[in-house]
C-alpha cells in the first residue's frame, strides 16, 4: 500500500501474495495468467468471478472475468474496466442502475467540502489584524472599493466570497476585508460626499454649462432619470460629468420633471449658468422645458414663432438657448426671401426622385430585417425594380439620365439574374466582373420555395406570356433536379420514386396557372409597392397542399 502525497489518494497493489494469487499455465506453456480478487476500484467484483490477468502468450495484456449473473466471459485490455460495467449496462440493467447509484453516492461523499467563511477566517485567527484606522487597512480598503467594486463594476457581495478573502490574505494576512454592510453604510456615503463636493467645486468654477436630461424605465418598471453636465474648462478641454442618477417617483408629467431639474440645478448652483438643455422629443420633456428661460439670459434668447419648419425626424429636441449675434433679425428679411420658396419645377423634380427610389428603399428595408430569410427576395425584387425603372424612364421629365444610369447599374450588378429571367442584356455589359454574381439558380429556387412568392412574381410581371411559360417550366425543372440531388445525397433513389416530384410540379403548375386569370392586373395600388400583387391580390384556391 502506497500513499501519494501530492493528491492524498491511497493506491493499493492489486497483486495478491503467493497464498492468494495463483499462476496457471496451459499445457503448451503459451498462456500465463494471474487470478485476482478485485476488478479496479469500482466494486465490480460483486458481479464477476474468476478474474484473470494474462501476462504472457497470445493473450498478453488482456483480462477476462465470468459474469455471475449470466455466466458469460467478458474480455478487456489490461488497466481498464469499461467492458465490465458496459456488460452490466447492456445485459443486466437493474443491477447496473444499483451499482451506478452506489458509485455516485461514494463520489459525492469523497468530494472536498467548500471552505466556509467562518473556516477561512478561523484559519488565520492567530494572525493579528490591522485596526480600522491603520494606514495599511485604510489603503487596502480604498483599493478594494475603488478598483474592484467601482473600477471593475463588481457587486458589494464580492468582499464576502471565500475566494476573494483568501486572495486578500495572500496580499496581506493582517488585512481585515470589510463586509458588504460596512461598505454600504460607511465607505459608500463617504465617497459619495467627496465626489459631490468635487462636482460642486467644478460647477462653481465653470462659467457656462449645458445639460442633457434623460429618463427611462428598466425591465422591472422602475423609473430613473439622469442629468449630465457639459462644459469647457479653463484649458479649453470639453468635459462632462454626471450630476444626478436618481429614481423618479410619481407620474412622468412635465411638472414633475421640471421639479427634478430644479432640485439638481439648485443643489449644484448652476441655475444661472445653463445656456442649453438637451432632451429627447417626448411630450412631457417639451412641456417641462419648452418655456424655460434662464434668469439673466433673457436678452440672448431667440424666439421662434414658426414651428412648422422644425424637423420632425430629429432624435433630440434642443431647447433654443442660442446666443444671438448682431441685431435681432427682421421678419421680412429672414422669412420672406423668394429664393427660399420651392418652384413648381423643384417640386416636380422631388416627386420624380421619390417615385424612382420608392422601390429601392422598400427592397433595402426588407432585406435588412432581422430574423427574415432574404435570399428569396432577390429575384422578385430585382425583377420588380427593373421594370419599375423602365416605366419611370418613359415618364421622367427632368431626371431621365439618373433613371437610365440606375438601369445600367442594375444590369451590371444583376445581369446574370436578369438574363436567366429572359431579359436581354448588351454584350458589353456581360464582360463586367460583377455580371455573373447572381446567375446561380439558387435565387430562382429560393423564391419558388417561399410561400409568399412561388410563381406569382413571374405570372404577375410584365414579361411576355411566352417567357412566363418557359420560365415557369424552367423553375419547376431545376427545383425537381435540386430535390433529387438532395434526396440522392441521403439515400439511393429507386426508379419508381422518380415520378413523385413530377406529379407535385404538375399540381403546382395547375394551381399557379389556373389562378393567374383570377388576378386583376388592372388594379393599381394607391401607393407604389414592390410586391403589390402579393399585398392586394386575393390568394388563388389551392388544389394540392405543397
From TrEMBL:
Residues 305-317 have a biased composition (Acidic residues). Residues 305-336, 495-523 are annotated as: Disordered. Signal peptide: none annotated. Keywords: Metal-binding, Nucleus, Zinc, Zinc-finger. One of its GO terms (molecular function) is zinc ion binding. It comes from the Eukaryota. The keyword Metal-binding applies. GO terms for cellular component: nucleus. Coiled coil: none annotated. It is found in: Nucleus. This is BED-type domain-containing protein. It comes from Rotaria sordida.
Amino acid at each position: 500500500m502506497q500513499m501519494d502525497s501530492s493528491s492524498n489518494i491511497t493506491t493499493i497493489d492489486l497483486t495478491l501474495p503467493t497464498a492468494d494469487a495463483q499462476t496457471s499455465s496451459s499445457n503448451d506453456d503459451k498462456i500465463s495468467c494471474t487470478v485476482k480478487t478485485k476488478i479496479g476500484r469500482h466494486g465490480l467484483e460483486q458481479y464477476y468471478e474468476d478474474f484473470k490477468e494474462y501476462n504472457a502468450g497470445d493473450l498478453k495484456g488482456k483480462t477476462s472475468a465470468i459474469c455471475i449473473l449470466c455466466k458469460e466471459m467478458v474480455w478487456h485490455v489490461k488497466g481498464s474496466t469499461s467492458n465490465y460495467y458496459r456488460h452490466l449496462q447492456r445485459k443486466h440493467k437493474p443491477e447496473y442502475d444499483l451499482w451506478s447509484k452506489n458509485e455516485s453516492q461514494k463520489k459525492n461523499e469523497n468530494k472536498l467540502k467548500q471552505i466556509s467563511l467562518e473556516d477561512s477566517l478561523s484559519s488565520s485567527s492567530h494572525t493579528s489584524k490591522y485596526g480600522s484606522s491603520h494606514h495599511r487597512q485604510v489603503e487596502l480598503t480604498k483599493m478594494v472599493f475603488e478598483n474592484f467594486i467601482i473600477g471593475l463594476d463588481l457587486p458589494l457581495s464580492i468582499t464576502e466570497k471565500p475566494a476573494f478573502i483568501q486572495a486578500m490574505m495572500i496580499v496581506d494576512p493582517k488585512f481585515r476585508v470589510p463586509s458588504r454592510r460596512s461598505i454600504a453604510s460607511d465607505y459608500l456615503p463617504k465617497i459619495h460626499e467627496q465626489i459631490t463636493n468635487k462636482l460642486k467645486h467644478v460647477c462653481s468654477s465653470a462659467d457656462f454649462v449645458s445639460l442633457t436630461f434623460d429618463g427611462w424605465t428598466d425591465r422591472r418598471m422602475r423609473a430613473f432619470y439622469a442629468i449630465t453636465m457639459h462644459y469647457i474648462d479653463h484649458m479649453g478641454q470639453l468635459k462632462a460629468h454626471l450630476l444626478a442618477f436618481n429614481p423618479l417617483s410619481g407620474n412622468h408629467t412635465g411638472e414633475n420633471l421640471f421639479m427634478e431639474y430644479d432640485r439638481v440645478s439648485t443643489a449644484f448652483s448652476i441655475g444661472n449658468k445653463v445656456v442649453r438643455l438637451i432632451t429627447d422629443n417626448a411630450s412631457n420633456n417639451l412641456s417641462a422645458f419648452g418655456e424655460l428661460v434662464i434668469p439673466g439670459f433673457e436678452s440672448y434668447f431667440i424666439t421662434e414663432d414658426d414651428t412648422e419648419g422644425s424637423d420632425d425626424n430629429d432624435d433630440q429636441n434642443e431647447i433654443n438657448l442660442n446666443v444671438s449675434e448682431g441685431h435681432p433679425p427682421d421678419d421680412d428679411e429672414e422669412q420672406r426671401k423668394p429664393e427660399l420658396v420651392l418652384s413648381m419645377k423643384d417640386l416636380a423634380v422631388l416627386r420624380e426622385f421619390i417615385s424612382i427610389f420608392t422601390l429601392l428603399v422598400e427592397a433595402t428595408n426588407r432585406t435588412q430585417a432581422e430574423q427574415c430569410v432574404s435570399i428569396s427576395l432577390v429575384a422578385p425584387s430585382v425583377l420588380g425594380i427593373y421594370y419599375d425603372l423602365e416605366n419611370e424612364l418613359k415618364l421622367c421629365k427632368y431626371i431621365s439620365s439618373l433613371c437610365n444610369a440606375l438601369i445600367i447599374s442594375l444590369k451590371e450588378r444583376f445581369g446574370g439574374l436578369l438574363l436567366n429571367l429572359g431579359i436581354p442584356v448588351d454584350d458589353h455589359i456581360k464582360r463586367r466582373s460583377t455580371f455573373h454574381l447572381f446567375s446561380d439558380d439558387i435565387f430562382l429556387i429560393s423564391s419558388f420555395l417561399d410561400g409568399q412568392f412561388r410563381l406569382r412574381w413571374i405570372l404577375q410581371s410584365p414579361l411576355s406570356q411566352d417567357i412566363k411559360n418557359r420560365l415557369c417550366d424552367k423553375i419547376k425543372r431545376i427545383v425537381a433536379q435540386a430535390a433529387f440531388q438532395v434526396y440522392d445525397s441521403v439515400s439511393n433513389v429507386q426508379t419508381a420514386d422518380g415520378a413523385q416530384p413530377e406529379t407535385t410540379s404538375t399540381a403546382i403548375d395547375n394551381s399557379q396557372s389556373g389562378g393567374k386569370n383570377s388576378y386583376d392586373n388592372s388594379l393599381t395600388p394607391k401607393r407604389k409597392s414592390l410586391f403589390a400583387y402579393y399585398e392586394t391580390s386575393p390568394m388563388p384556391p389551392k388544389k394540392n397542399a405543397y
